[in-house]
Amino acid sequence: MSLTVDALSFRYPTHQALADVSFALPKHSVTALIGPNGAGKSTLMRCIAGLLRPSAGAVRINDVEVAAAPREAHKRLGFLEDSFGLYDALTVKQCLIYAAKSRGVADENVTLRVTEVATQLEISAKLDARVGELSRGQRQRVAIGQSIVHSPELLVLDEPASGLDPEARSSLAGLFRRLSASGMTLLVSSHILTELEEYSTHMLALRDGRVVDFRPLHATSAHAGDDRRERVLDLRLHTAWPNMESTLATLGARFEANASATNHWSLTADLTDAEQAALLHKLVLAGAPLISFDERRKTLSQTYQSTIERAQDAAGSQA
Predict the structure, then answer these.
(1) If 0-12 CB within 10 Å is exposed, 13-18 middle and 19+ buried, where does residue 12 land?
(2) Crossing angle, helix 107-120 and helix 166-181, to 10 degrees?
(3) Which of the two residues, 272 and 37, has the higher pLDDT score?
(4) Using CB atoms within 10 A of its CB, is residue 62 exposed (0-12), middle (13-18) or buried (19+)?
(5) Considering its fold, how many domains does the chain have in total?
(6) For residue 184, is it within any domain?
């Protein structure tokens, strides 16, 4: 795992911001950190970055505990807050050189890393431009460049697309996919779920300072074949089959018939790949006249909404 958070808690003088938060991010994943305002997202990211010392628990970037060895952790971490600062009077090249040297890049490697990062972020043509002359999207790329110039293993971003136009948002999504493909692990917080869906492999949902869900989003996610996740399956039959409802009832899943087509069923269940294959096998053995058996890809918004509904149901049952 690239990042491990173990029983993390943090308390401000007036309220508990995080309570017993635990999760581990797989290497090379891009995790969408989502939740309502006040859920604890920014506090969590600042604890990960070593800017806040937790009341309890630990944060580890691979084998380095952040609170115990912050300088060592910072060599492996890149962090970009929502309100990032840049020196407008400096050129892009000067900003990246300053960031590289302040983050411990060896002098003989600084020029190479600045060139590599500028190429990666598609700002090579702007290296000699003053930062104060750049567009919002270009400034955002410079800020991200400062966060990755030291080749961190983990990149944490708080609202990275805030204030960007649609074209700049799309370009940023492509950048995050490339960073992940190059070997970096990303944790990205945003209120724009459609934006996160473009590049996220996992979802981490916080509510009232607690983790309410952490899961891979799609079958293409890293290690998704080994993980249980909620799936929505569409089953279509050649003809009506009277045993369909009773057979599905034995599977312990939620199901319903399509109101406009009795030969079309929807099945929702938490399954692994192996369990989904076994479910299909069981239906075939039972004689279901299936003509299609498809998994419907849920959007990030739908997945998050399902998570919140389950959390509310659980809270209601405990009341």
Answers:
(1) exposed
(2) 130
(3) 37
(4) middle
(5) 2
(6) yes
Token reading at 194: 């459609």
What distances in angstroms separate CA 170 from CA 173, 180, 195, 197, 198, one per listed residue?
Answer: 5, 16, 8, 11, 8
pTM, entire model:
0.76
What's the token pair of residue 137?
Answer: 């999207």
Give the separation between CA 198 and CA 16, rounded to whole angstroms.
32
What gap in Å lies between CA 21 and CA 48, rounded to an integer? 12
Q: In what order do the strands lie in the sheet with 64-65?
A: 16-25, 3-11, 56-61, 64-65
Asked if the model's pLDDT at residue 227 lies above 70, the reply is no
Residue 319 lies in a domain: no
Q: How confident is the model at residue 9 (pLDDT cuts 50, 70, 90)?
A: very high
Same domain, 126 and 237: no
In this prediction, residues 53-61 reach a mean pLDDT of 96
Measured distance CA(92)–CA(205) in Å, rounded: 35
Q: What is the CATH number of the domain that holds 232?
A: 3.30.70.980
- What CATH number is associated with residue 91? 3.40.50.300
| pLDDT exceeds cutoff 70 at 17 | yes
- The distance of Cα 194 from the centroid of its chain, to the nearest Å, equals 12
Confidence of residue 261 (pLDDT cuts 50, 70, 90): low
User: What digits encode the pLDDT tens for the residues 112-147?
Assistant: 999 999 999 989 999 999 999 999 889 999 999 999
Q: How far is CA 216 from CA 75, 128, 211, 223, in A?
A: 27, 41, 14, 8
In this structure, are strands 229-237 and 261-271 parallel, antiparallel, or unpaired? antiparallel
Per the CB < 8 A criterion, the answer to whether 192 and 161 are in contact is: yes
The DSSP secondary-structure symbol of 82 reads: S
Nearest-Å Rg of the Cα atoms of the chain is 23
The pLDDT-based confidence of 221 (bands split at 50, 70, 90) is very low
Domain containing 244 equals 224-296
